[in-house]
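Researcher: Going back to the complex we discussed earlier. I've cleaned up the inputs and rechecked each line, so this should be the final set. Can you rerun the prediction on the complete assembly and write out the structure?
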Amino acid sequence: MPNRAASKNEPDLFKNSASLEKPAHIYTVSQITQDIKLILENTFAQIWVEGEVSGLNRIPTGTLFFNLKDSASLLKCVIFFSVAPNIKFELKDGMQVVCGGRVSVYEKDGKYQLYVQSVEPKGMGSLQLALEQLKQKLEKEGLFSPAHKKPIPYLPARIGVVTSLQGAAIKDILKVLDRRFKEVHIMISSVRVQGEGAKEEIAQAIEDFNVFNQGLPAGQRIEVMIVGRGGGSTEDLWAFNEEIVARAIYKSKIPVISAVGHERDWSISDLVADLRAPTPSVAAELVIPKKEDLEDKLTSLTRDLRRSFEELAWDFQERLDGLAHRLGLSMGHTLKLNFNQFEGAIKKLKLLNPAALIRSHQEKIAGLAKAMRVRLSHFLELRESFFAKAVEKLANLSPLNILSRGYSIAFAMPEGKIIKDAALLKAGEMIKTKLHKGEVLSQVREVKTDG
Amino acid sequence: MAEIKFEEALKKLEKIVEDLEGGDLSLDEALKKYQEGIELSKVCAQRLENTKKKIDVLVKNKKGEFELRPLDEAKIEE
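Model: Rerun complete. Updated structure for the full complex:
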């Protein structure tokens, strides 16, 4: 690099080495490297360099190597694994950034590089970029999808709140409760909402409520959850922009209302939540109804109840009137109901109800009577024909009829007993024989018992 | 009836009004529903007036079980 020696910016150190004939001092490689290192470190102890990221390489330990370049030059950079977590957004090739750090030499390779302590994206803060990057990532995964959003229940009886007991949000929520309908059970999981550990605690509390809910009987579960905090700086609200919180909200089976900071503050939590409330107070107002609203609703419902029953009762009244008319009863005016006095109406209606019953019973009785008449006449017919047959049968069995067919009956005389056995007679006794027409008196001549 | 949730009572009342408006009921059914409706309306009105708020803090005890402890509101007001 002969041209370099002519540069105005060359440090004094190199002027001496221009006269190579008489070496005043001979360096070892390590010595000269050490000297260069010292000069660079002293001169560029805390500098900012702007350029485009290229050749980005992350090794497994988490340390990042990359170059910063512009149209003419390139600067090697390193971000150690211990520093990397401080950088909120994800560094990418092609990104325009401003890196802060010190220049030093990596002695083993004899290469100088920028040891980066902080990185800011050009044109916006790193938090904004981190937010933008996370937003894009989660959106791609569908965490903001409207299809995934659960409906917020009307009049939830149990509400979970994830916030800090020391914060403004809980005060605001309880204030709302004080001036609204109180039949609500508020359960608070107190968490840190900013600083170290906040994001983990918030995510854990959301999960805890879900686990706790699983153990509750079906009718006693938490129906909605408010996750949030009062106003603060962008950094104060940052926990609600963290991925771990976003994922916990997304996973929650209990619908989540996010309520972070003020109206103008938008967080990742707001985008994932089932509903975004501009402030914790509004979140509470969304789920705890005004007493007056409920009173109005109850009043109008009760009025509808009376009116609809009146209409129905009038309808029955008309039908009863019609029935009474058809029955030829002039009861119509006695059926008039005074619907301003419901007790009376109920009693009267109960009294009137038998009219319909009587009518139906009368119809039943008429039907039964008719059926009975039919059956009776049928029965009588049966009886008559049976009687005629019986008379004929009786007539056939009469001995007189038998005589008419040529048979006769003999009676012993003078007793008049019917003779069935000749052995009971003796010769010379008298017998009477009855014929179909007339009788004959005879004297027995001979008895033959062997017939 | 005393244990019914306000929201449930209101929903039931709405349903009764709907049924009555439908008109397809016997007189006995209508009466029964009307009386039930009046009862629910009374319960709701009473709940609106007399309910006390209930605020608990969810904590995990040493065994890792969840517990609800009443919130000391005085602490919040500080």
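Model: Worth noting: Confidence is low (pLDDT under 50) at residues 1-6, 329-341 of chain A.
Researcher: Good, that matches what I expected from the previous run.
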